[in-house]
Amino acid sequence: MKILTKYTSLLLILFIFSANQIISDEHAHESKSNVNVLKTLLDGNQRFVSGKLQHPHQDHKTIVKNSKGQHPYAVIIACSDSRVPVETIFDQGVGDIFVIRTAGNVIGKIEMGSIQYAVEHLGVKFVGVMGHTDCGAIKAYASGSKGEGNIKDIIDHIADEAEEKEIPEPKHEHMDRCIYANIFHGTKQILNDPLITKVSTHHGKVEILPMLYDVKTGVVQVLDLDMKAPH
Q: Residue 189 carries which DSSP code?
C-alpha cells in the first residue's frame, strides 16, 4: 500500500511539473507574440551602439526551451556581409529572430519562400528588410562590374530592380540612392507577395519595414514608408 501511495504521489508530481512546463511555454509564446517588436529591436540596437549589451536568451536554458520548437517574433532580411551580424546588432538571442541573409539582401524565390514560412507557419508579424552602407554587392552593380560565376547572378538581380533603373547614370555617383533603392525593392516585393497579403488580411497585419544599418556607427535606422531615396 505504501509503495502504491508513493507511486501515485510521484505520478502526481510529474503531472504537475509537465502542466506547469506547458503553461510556461505557452506564456513564453504569448509574450513574444505581444511584444512591441520594433521597439525591442531598436532598444537592443541602442544597447549595442552604447556598449551596454545584455546578451539575452543565450544560455543553456534557452537552447533547451527552443529545442521543442521555434517562436521568433521578427524576420530580418539582411546582407551576408560579415559586418552585419543581425542578432548581435539587435542584442537578441536564440529563437528571437528568423534571419535570412544573402549578398545585397536580394530576395529570390528561395528567400521569399523562407519569409512565407516564417509568416504563415511560425506566425511572425514583423518583417524588416535591412540593407547597409558600403554594401559590396551594390558597389559592384553601381560600378558597372559584370562579375563572374554566380556573382554575376547577384549583380544582374540588382540591375533588374525597377528602383535601381530610375537612378541616373553614372550609378557610382549615387551610391546612397542605390542602397536605398535596393532596400525599397525588397520591401515592395514582400508587401506585394500574395501569400503574405493573404496571411496579413485573414490572420492579423504583418508589419513590413525598410531598414538601414550603418557599418560605421552600428546604428539601425527605419526608413520612411514613402520609400523615396534621398537626392
A: H
Q: Cα separation of 158 and 142, whole Å?
A: 9
Core vs surface per residue 55-73: b (16+ CB within 10 A) or e = eebeeeebeebbeeeebbb
Confidence (pTM): 0.84
For residues 33 and 96, what is the distance between their CA atoms, to the nearest angstrom? Answer: 11
Cell numbers given for 84 = 552585419
Alpha-carbon distances of 56 from 60, 69, 92, 158, 225, rounded to whole Å: 12, 18, 6, 35, 30
Mean pLDDT in residue range 52-69: 93
For 150, list phi and psi in degrees, rounded to 5. Answer: -80, -10
Confidence of residue 226 (pLDDT cuts 50, 70, 90): confident
Angle at 125 between CA 120 and CA 126, to 5 degrees: 125
Query: What DSSP designation does 225 have?
Result: T
Return all residues near 96 (Cβ < 8 A) that are at least 6 apart. Answer: 32, 56, 57, 72, 73, 74, 87
| Main-chain phi, psi angles of 209, to 5 degrees | -130, 145
Omega of the bond prior to 170 within 30 degrees of 0, cis?
yes
3-state secondary structure of 97: strand
Residue 149 reports pLDDT greater than 80: yes
Per-residue pLDDT reduced to its tens digit, 180-194: 999 999 999 999 999
**Cβ pair 130, 77 in contact under 8 A:** yes
